[in-house]
Amino acid sequence: MSAFFSSTDPKSVTCSSSTLSRFTRQFSVLLNAGIPMHEALESLMRVQSDSLSLWVTPEICKRVTLGHRLSTSVAQFPRVFPATYVALVRASEETGKLVLVLNRLSDWLDRREKIERHVKKALTYPLLVLVTAIILTLGLFRTVIPGILDTVTGLNVELPWPTLLLLAAVRFIEQPLSWLLLALICIAALMYARSEQGWKRLVIVSLSVPLTGPILVQSSSSRYAHTMSMLIEAGVDIIRAAKISADASANPLIQQDAVRVTKELREGSYFSDVLASSPLYPTLLVDMIRVGDESGRMAALIRRCGEMMEEETMHKVDVFLNLLEPIVLAAISAVVGFIVIAVLMPMSSLVSAL
After folding, report:
1. N or C: which end of the chain has fewer CB within 10 A?
2. So what's the pLDDT on residue 118?
3. In total, how many domains does the chain have?
4. Over the stretch 291-315, which tens digit does the pLDDT of each residue have?
5. By residue range, what is the domain housing residue 41?
6. Is the pTM of this model over 0.90?
7. How far are the Cα atoms of 159, 162, 337 from residue 346, in angstroms, in the given order?
Protein backbone atom coordinates (compact mmCIF):
# COMPACT_ATOMS: atom_id res chain seq x y z
CA MET A 1 0.00 0.00 0.00
CA SER A 2 2.86 2.36 0.65
CA ALA A 3 3.55 2.31 -3.08
CA PHE A 4 0.60 4.62 -3.52
CA PHE A 5 2.48 7.38 -1.79
CA SER A 6 5.60 9.24 -2.78
CA SER A 7 6.46 10.02 0.84
CA THR A 8 5.08 9.92 4.38
CA ASP A 9 5.43 13.70 4.48
CA PRO A 10 1.83 15.08 4.43
CA LYS A 11 2.83 17.67 1.84
CA SER A 12 4.09 14.94 -0.51
CA VAL A 13 1.30 12.36 -0.17
CA THR A 14 -0.76 11.94 -3.35
CA CYS A 15 -3.74 9.94 -4.58
CA SER A 16 -5.80 9.66 -7.77
CA SER A 17 -8.92 11.68 -8.54
CA SER A 18 -11.05 8.52 -8.58
CA THR A 19 -9.87 7.55 -5.08
CA LEU A 20 -10.57 11.02 -3.72
CA SER A 21 -13.99 11.08 -5.41
CA ARG A 22 -14.95 7.72 -3.90
CA PHE A 23 -13.80 8.87 -0.46
CA THR A 24 -15.77 12.12 -0.77
CA ARG A 25 -18.97 10.44 -1.92
CA GLN A 26 -18.86 7.76 0.80
CA PHE A 27 -18.09 10.40 3.42
CA SER A 28 -21.09 12.43 2.23
CA VAL A 29 -23.42 9.42 2.43
CA LEU A 30 -22.34 8.64 6.00
CA LEU A 31 -22.75 12.25 7.15
CA ASN A 32 -26.15 12.49 5.47
CA ALA A 33 -27.22 9.39 7.41
CA GLY A 34 -26.61 11.28 10.66
CA ILE A 35 -23.34 9.59 11.63
CA PRO A 36 -20.92 11.88 13.55
CA MET A 37 -17.91 13.01 11.56
CA HIS A 38 -15.25 11.14 13.52
CA GLU A 39 -17.29 7.92 13.39
CA ALA A 40 -17.77 8.33 9.64
CA LEU A 41 -14.02 8.71 9.19
CA GLU A 42 -13.37 5.64 11.33
CA SER A 43 -15.87 3.69 9.22
CA LEU A 44 -14.09 4.75 6.04
CA MET A 45 -10.79 3.60 7.52
CA ARG A 46 -12.27 0.11 8.00
CA VAL A 47 -14.10 -0.32 4.68
CA GLN A 48 -11.60 1.34 2.34
CA SER A 49 -8.75 -0.63 0.82
CA ASP A 50 -7.15 2.19 -1.12
CA SER A 51 -4.32 4.64 -0.51
CA LEU A 52 -6.35 7.11 1.55
CA SER A 53 -6.98 4.55 4.28
CA LEU A 54 -3.24 4.04 4.85
CA TRP A 55 -2.19 7.53 5.91
CA VAL A 56 -4.63 10.31 5.06
CA THR A 57 -7.91 9.18 6.64
CA PRO A 58 -6.36 8.15 9.99
CA GLU A 59 -4.58 11.51 10.29
CA ILE A 60 -7.74 13.44 9.44
CA CYS A 61 -9.75 11.35 11.90
CA LYS A 62 -7.15 11.94 14.61
CA ARG A 63 -7.20 15.70 14.11
CA VAL A 64 -11.01 15.88 13.97
CA THR A 65 -11.27 13.83 17.17
CA LEU A 66 -8.89 16.29 18.87
CA GLY A 67 -11.22 19.14 17.95
CA HIS A 68 -9.68 20.48 14.75
CA ARG A 69 -11.94 21.58 11.92
CA LEU A 70 -12.28 19.32 8.90
CA SER A 71 -11.01 22.05 6.56
CA THR A 72 -7.77 22.55 8.51
CA SER A 73 -7.32 18.78 8.73
CA VAL A 74 -7.59 18.16 4.98
CA ALA A 75 -5.42 21.21 4.30
CA GLN A 76 -2.48 19.25 5.77
CA PHE A 77 -2.46 17.18 2.54
CA PRO A 78 -2.24 19.77 -0.28
CA ARG A 79 -1.43 17.20 -2.98
CA VAL A 80 -4.44 15.06 -2.05
CA PHE A 81 -7.02 17.79 -1.47
CA PRO A 82 -6.79 20.69 -3.97
CA ALA A 83 -7.15 24.29 -2.80
CA THR A 84 -10.68 24.31 -4.23
CA TYR A 85 -11.59 21.30 -2.11
CA VAL A 86 -10.26 22.90 1.07
CA ALA A 87 -11.96 26.25 0.37
CA LEU A 88 -15.32 24.60 -0.28
CA VAL A 89 -15.11 22.51 2.89
CA ARG A 90 -14.18 25.61 4.90
CA ALA A 91 -17.10 27.56 3.42
CA SER A 92 -19.53 24.68 4.04
CA GLU A 93 -18.51 24.56 7.71
CA GLU A 94 -19.60 28.17 8.00
CA THR A 95 -22.88 27.72 6.10
CA GLY A 96 -23.84 24.21 7.26
CA LYS A 97 -23.89 22.79 3.70
CA LEU A 98 -21.14 20.20 4.10
CA VAL A 99 -23.12 17.27 2.65
CA LEU A 100 -24.21 19.30 -0.38
CA VAL A 101 -20.67 20.54 -0.98
CA LEU A 102 -19.19 17.04 -0.69
CA ASN A 103 -21.68 15.80 -3.29
CA ARG A 104 -20.73 18.64 -5.63
CA LEU A 105 -17.04 17.92 -5.09
CA SER A 106 -17.43 14.22 -5.87
CA ASP A 107 -19.29 15.07 -9.09
CA TRP A 108 -16.55 17.54 -10.01
CA LEU A 109 -13.83 14.96 -9.37
CA ASP A 110 -15.75 12.33 -11.36
CA ARG A 111 -15.96 14.64 -14.36
CA ARG A 112 -12.25 15.41 -14.18
CA GLU A 113 -11.41 11.72 -13.94
CA LYS A 114 -13.73 10.96 -16.89
CA ILE A 115 -11.91 13.45 -19.12
CA GLU A 116 -8.50 12.12 -18.08
CA ARG A 117 -9.54 8.52 -18.80
CA HIS A 118 -10.99 9.52 -22.17
CA VAL A 119 -7.80 11.27 -23.22
CA LYS A 120 -5.54 8.43 -22.03
CA LYS A 121 -7.65 5.85 -23.86
CA ALA A 122 -7.63 7.82 -27.09
CA LEU A 123 -3.87 8.46 -26.90
CA THR A 124 -2.98 4.80 -26.41
CA TYR A 125 -2.95 3.80 -30.09
CA PRO A 126 -1.09 6.84 -31.53
CA LEU A 127 1.52 6.67 -28.77
CA LEU A 128 1.98 2.92 -29.30
CA VAL A 129 2.49 3.46 -33.03
CA LEU A 130 4.93 6.31 -32.38
CA VAL A 131 7.00 4.38 -29.83
CA THR A 132 7.11 1.30 -32.06
CA ALA A 133 8.19 3.39 -35.04
CA ILE A 134 10.96 5.07 -33.02
CA ILE A 135 12.30 1.72 -31.78
CA LEU A 136 12.26 0.20 -35.27
CA THR A 137 13.91 3.29 -36.79
CA LEU A 138 16.68 3.20 -34.18
CA GLY A 139 17.13 -0.48 -34.93
CA LEU A 140 17.54 0.32 -38.63
CA PHE A 141 20.04 3.04 -37.80
CA ARG A 142 22.08 0.55 -35.77
CA THR A 143 21.96 -2.40 -38.21
CA VAL A 144 20.88 -1.93 -41.82
CA ILE A 145 21.44 1.73 -42.66
CA PRO A 146 25.19 1.89 -41.70
CA GLY A 147 25.97 -0.90 -44.19
CA ILE A 148 23.98 0.79 -46.93
CA LEU A 149 25.70 4.10 -46.28
CA ASP A 150 29.13 2.43 -46.41
CA THR A 151 28.21 1.13 -49.86
CA VAL A 152 26.94 4.57 -50.94
CA THR A 153 30.05 6.42 -49.72
CA GLY A 154 32.20 3.87 -51.56
CA LEU A 155 30.74 4.98 -54.89
CA ASN A 156 33.09 7.99 -54.89
CA VAL A 157 30.36 10.46 -55.86
CA GLU A 158 29.48 13.80 -54.34
CA LEU A 159 27.01 13.15 -51.54
CA PRO A 160 23.89 15.35 -51.50
CA TRP A 161 22.81 17.07 -48.28
CA PRO A 162 20.10 14.48 -47.37
CA THR A 163 22.73 11.73 -47.46
CA LEU A 164 25.17 13.80 -45.42
CA LEU A 165 22.45 14.51 -42.87
CA LEU A 166 21.56 10.81 -42.64
CA LEU A 167 25.24 9.92 -42.28
CA ALA A 168 25.64 12.42 -39.44
CA ALA A 169 22.57 10.97 -37.71
CA VAL A 170 23.97 7.44 -37.95
CA ARG A 171 27.32 8.54 -36.53
CA PHE A 172 25.55 10.37 -33.70
CA ILE A 173 23.54 7.28 -32.76
CA GLU A 174 26.62 5.05 -32.86
CA GLN A 175 28.43 7.15 -30.22
CA PRO A 176 27.71 6.21 -26.56
CA LEU A 177 28.55 9.77 -25.50
CA SER A 178 25.77 11.01 -27.77
CA TRP A 179 23.25 8.88 -25.90
CA LEU A 180 24.59 10.16 -22.58
CA LEU A 181 24.28 13.77 -23.78
CA LEU A 182 20.74 13.13 -25.03
CA ALA A 183 19.79 11.53 -21.71
CA LEU A 184 21.16 14.49 -19.76
CA ILE A 185 19.24 16.93 -21.96
CA CYS A 186 16.01 14.97 -21.45
CA ILE A 187 16.52 14.82 -17.68
CA ALA A 188 17.25 18.57 -17.52
CA ALA A 189 14.17 19.34 -19.63
CA LEU A 190 11.99 17.10 -17.46
CA MET A 191 13.23 18.68 -14.25
CA TYR A 192 12.62 22.16 -15.65
CA ALA A 193 9.11 21.19 -16.79
CA ARG A 194 8.33 19.84 -13.29
CA SER A 195 9.36 23.13 -11.69
CA GLU A 196 6.69 25.76 -11.13
CA GLN A 197 8.22 28.29 -13.51
CA GLY A 198 8.94 25.70 -16.19
CA TRP A 199 5.44 24.25 -16.01
CA LYS A 200 3.87 27.71 -16.37
CA ARG A 201 6.00 28.50 -19.40
CA LEU A 202 5.15 25.13 -20.95
CA VAL A 203 1.43 25.78 -20.49
CA ILE A 204 1.71 29.31 -21.91
CA VAL A 205 3.52 27.99 -24.99
CA SER A 206 0.90 25.24 -25.39
CA LEU A 207 -1.86 27.84 -25.27
CA SER A 208 -0.49 29.41 -28.46
CA VAL A 209 -0.26 26.12 -30.40
CA PRO A 210 -3.11 25.88 -32.96
CA LEU A 211 -4.21 22.34 -32.06
CA THR A 212 -3.73 22.28 -28.28
CA GLY A 213 -4.35 25.96 -27.52
CA PRO A 214 -8.17 26.01 -27.98
CA ILE A 215 -8.50 22.80 -25.97
CA LEU A 216 -6.50 24.17 -23.03
CA VAL A 217 -8.37 27.49 -23.10
CA GLN A 218 -11.75 25.77 -23.12
CA SER A 219 -10.69 23.29 -20.43
CA SER A 220 -9.33 25.98 -18.09
CA SER A 221 -12.47 28.09 -18.59
CA SER A 222 -14.62 25.08 -17.73
CA ARG A 223 -12.67 24.46 -14.51
CA TYR A 224 -12.93 28.16 -13.68
CA ALA A 225 -16.72 28.11 -14.14
CA HIS A 226 -17.29 24.87 -12.20
CA THR A 227 -15.17 26.05 -9.29
CA MET A 228 -16.82 29.47 -9.26
CA SER A 229 -20.33 27.95 -9.20
CA MET A 230 -19.47 25.59 -6.33
CA LEU A 231 -17.86 28.37 -4.29
CA ILE A 232 -20.77 30.78 -4.76
CA GLU A 233 -23.24 28.02 -3.95
CA ALA A 234 -21.29 27.25 -0.77
CA GLY A 235 -21.51 30.88 0.34
CA VAL A 236 -17.99 32.08 -0.49
CA ASP A 237 -17.79 35.80 -1.30
CA ILE A 238 -17.18 36.71 -4.93
CA ILE A 239 -13.69 38.19 -4.40
CA ARG A 240 -12.36 35.12 -2.65
CA ALA A 241 -14.16 32.87 -5.14
CA ALA A 242 -12.51 34.65 -8.07
CA LYS A 243 -9.03 34.07 -6.62
CA ILE A 244 -9.63 30.38 -5.84
CA SER A 245 -11.28 29.76 -9.23
CA ALA A 246 -8.29 31.30 -10.99
CA ASP A 247 -5.94 28.95 -9.12
CA ALA A 248 -8.19 25.97 -9.98
CA SER A 249 -8.21 26.86 -13.69
CA ALA A 250 -4.55 25.72 -14.06
CA ASN A 251 -4.13 28.52 -16.60
CA PRO A 252 -1.13 30.74 -15.71
CA LEU A 253 -2.61 33.68 -17.63
CA ILE A 254 -5.88 33.53 -15.67
CA GLN A 255 -3.93 33.11 -12.43
CA GLN A 256 -1.91 36.25 -13.21
CA ASP A 257 -5.08 38.14 -14.15
CA ALA A 258 -6.66 37.24 -10.80
CA VAL A 259 -4.78 40.16 -9.21
CA ARG A 260 -6.54 42.61 -11.53
CA VAL A 261 -9.91 40.88 -11.14
CA THR A 262 -9.87 40.93 -7.33
CA LYS A 263 -8.64 44.54 -7.29
CA GLU A 264 -11.49 45.76 -9.52
CA LEU A 265 -14.05 43.73 -7.59
CA ARG A 266 -12.93 45.39 -4.35
CA GLU A 267 -13.39 48.75 -6.05
CA GLY A 268 -17.04 47.89 -6.71
CA SER A 269 -17.02 46.86 -10.38
CA TYR A 270 -19.50 44.30 -11.67
CA PHE A 271 -18.03 40.82 -12.05
CA SER A 272 -19.23 40.50 -15.65
CA ASP A 273 -17.67 43.85 -16.62
CA VAL A 274 -14.36 42.86 -15.00
CA LEU A 275 -14.18 39.62 -16.98
CA ALA A 276 -15.43 41.23 -20.21
CA SER A 277 -12.43 43.59 -20.24
CA SER A 278 -10.05 40.64 -20.77
CA PRO A 279 -9.92 38.23 -23.75
CA LEU A 280 -9.04 35.34 -21.42
CA TYR A 281 -12.65 34.62 -20.51
CA PRO A 282 -15.18 33.23 -23.03
CA THR A 283 -18.08 35.44 -24.05
CA LEU A 284 -20.51 32.74 -22.94
CA LEU A 285 -19.17 32.84 -19.38
CA VAL A 286 -19.35 36.65 -19.26
CA ASP A 287 -22.93 36.64 -20.55
CA MET A 288 -24.00 33.98 -18.04
CA ILE A 289 -22.50 35.98 -15.17
CA ARG A 290 -24.23 39.14 -16.39
CA VAL A 291 -27.60 37.35 -16.50
CA GLY A 292 -26.87 35.80 -13.11
CA ASP A 293 -26.23 39.26 -11.64
CA GLU A 294 -29.62 40.41 -12.87
CA SER A 295 -31.62 37.29 -12.00
CA GLY A 296 -29.94 36.22 -8.77
CA ARG A 297 -29.21 32.74 -10.18
CA MET A 298 -25.49 33.20 -10.75
CA ALA A 299 -24.34 29.85 -9.30
CA ALA A 300 -26.79 27.78 -11.38
CA LEU A 301 -26.05 29.69 -14.60
CA ILE A 302 -22.29 29.49 -14.16
CA ARG A 303 -22.56 25.77 -13.45
CA ARG A 304 -24.56 25.29 -16.67
CA CYS A 305 -21.98 27.35 -18.54
CA GLY A 306 -19.22 25.12 -17.16
CA GLU A 307 -21.07 22.01 -18.33
CA MET A 308 -21.47 23.46 -21.83
CA MET A 309 -17.79 24.38 -22.03
CA GLU A 310 -16.88 20.91 -20.73
CA GLU A 311 -18.89 19.33 -23.55
CA GLU A 312 -17.15 21.60 -26.03
CA THR A 313 -13.79 20.59 -24.54
CA MET A 314 -14.60 16.90 -25.05
CA HIS A 315 -15.58 17.61 -28.65
CA LYS A 316 -12.33 19.46 -29.34
CA VAL A 317 -10.33 16.69 -27.67
CA ASP A 318 -12.00 14.12 -29.93
CA VAL A 319 -11.22 16.22 -33.02
CA PHE A 320 -7.60 16.62 -31.91
CA LEU A 321 -7.17 12.91 -31.23
CA ASN A 322 -8.75 12.01 -34.56
CA LEU A 323 -6.22 14.30 -36.26
CA LEU A 324 -3.32 13.00 -34.17
CA GLU A 325 -3.32 9.50 -35.69
CA PRO A 326 -2.87 10.61 -39.34
CA ILE A 327 -0.33 13.22 -38.21
CA VAL A 328 1.75 10.51 -36.51
CA LEU A 329 1.49 8.23 -39.55
CA ALA A 330 2.44 11.12 -41.86
CA ALA A 331 5.49 11.92 -39.71
CA ILE A 332 6.61 8.27 -39.81
CA SER A 333 6.11 8.19 -43.58
CA ALA A 334 8.16 11.38 -43.93
CA VAL A 335 11.06 9.86 -41.98
CA VAL A 336 10.99 6.67 -44.05
CA GLY A 337 10.76 8.68 -47.26
CA PHE A 338 13.73 10.84 -46.22
CA ILE A 339 15.84 7.73 -45.56
CA VAL A 340 14.94 6.26 -48.96
CA ILE A 341 15.71 9.54 -50.77
CA ALA A 342 19.01 9.97 -48.89
CA VAL A 343 20.11 6.47 -49.97
CA LEU A 344 18.90 6.62 -53.59
CA MET A 345 20.12 10.11 -54.53
CA PRO A 346 23.86 9.19 -54.71
CA MET A 347 23.02 6.07 -56.71
CA SER A 348 20.93 8.19 -59.08
CA SER A 349 23.83 10.62 -59.52
CA LEU A 350 26.16 7.72 -60.33
CA VAL A 351 23.77 6.25 -62.90
CA SER A 352 23.34 9.66 -64.54
CA ALA A 353 27.11 10.05 -64.83
CA LEU A 354 27.52 6.75 -66.69
Report:
1. C
2. 73
3. 2
4. 888 887 888 888 888 888 888 888 8
5. 2-96
6. no
7. 6, 10, 15
